[in-house]
């Protein structure tokens, strides 16, 4: 007896659609764990230098626009909400809702990147970008080096996060195109599901970046 | 194939909780709690991470294998952070030459 179930999307190496989906989901989680390790090293570097240069890091952190940071956190949470509703729309087989929620997710992601771009632009105008023209106000000349270290970590961490957002936007456009063509059904929507996992992961990274970069010394302001 | 379809209501509750926690962490940061400021910021961030992972990433419906992989990842992240910082923080405690 052939136990292989005939479903168009089922690859021949799998017995059932459930097994195939489980393999994809697990693979995505393993990738996300490697991403956790990757960002973990940066968070460790940040912790070590923040402890070593606590006062300078505090002063540097207080130059951040906390309201833009908080607004961006809210925007990303909104995008995660629309993403999870997109996955739900795929689960229940609503192509129209899937397309609408994917578009909303892409728009929120775009707003996040736009606000991030405004913040970076301000840093360039204020000479807060590490390099020969770097200068942080109210910090003695001897502490300009550690202050540059803070902004190096800031640009590395928010830059890599933004790169993940750009990749996420690309994934969402791919999903949108395939959703538009009607490729996803309640029996096969794995790409939407694991695309969602990636998107929520990028949200979680920002959930940690926001307090560490923007809020650490706010009470001394 | 068994699939959990969560209600829009439960997703909305998680969404609203995340927004409230974002406002909370932003406001709590302006109050001087001494060393507890960092603890509060990280505590709220961990709660938000758990909400996103368990509900939005459906980890609570995931298979045991997936949960073990995620738990293992968190364990290794813990080893990275805790062991490295334990070394770094305690390095000045003993007057050992060449520390």
Notable traits:
heterodimer; A: 221 residues; mainly alpha; Four Helix Bundle (Hemerythrin (Met), subunit A); 6 helices; elongated; B: 99 residues
Short description:
Chain A is mainly alpha-helical. Chain A is built from 6 helices and no strands.
- What is the distance, rounded to the nearest whole angstrom, between the alpha carbons of the first and last residues of chain B? 58 Å
Helix/strand-derived class of chain B? mainly alpha
Uncertain spans of chain B: none
Taken as a percent bin, the fraction of beta residues of chain A is: under 5%
**Percent of residues in helices of chain B:** 55-70%
Tally of individual helices of chain B = 3
Structural class of chain A: mainly alpha
Total DSSP E strands of chain A:
0
SS elements, strand count of chain B: 0
Radius of gyration of chain B: 19 Å
What value does the average pLDDT of chain A take? 94
Oligomer: heterodimer
- Largest inter-chain contact set: A-B, 53 and 50 residues
Major β-sheet of chain A, in short?
Answer: none
On the 0 to 100 scale, the average pLDDT of chain B is 92
How would you sum up the major sheet of chain B?
Answer: none
Determine the N-to-C terminus distance of chain A. Answer: 73 Å
| CATH structural class of chain A | Mainly Alpha
Q: What general form of chain A does the structure show?
A: elongated
Strand and helix order of chain A? HHHHHH
Give an overview in words:
The complex is a heterodimer of chains A (221) and B (99). Chain A is 74% helix and 0% strand. With 221 residues, chain A is mainly α. The longest helix of chain A has 37 residues, at 144-180. By secondary structure, chain B is mostly helical. Helices cover 70% and strands 0% of the residues of chain B. Chain B is built from 3 helices and no strands. Chains A and B meet through helix 1, helix 3 and helix 6 of A and helix 1, helix 2 and helix 3 of B.
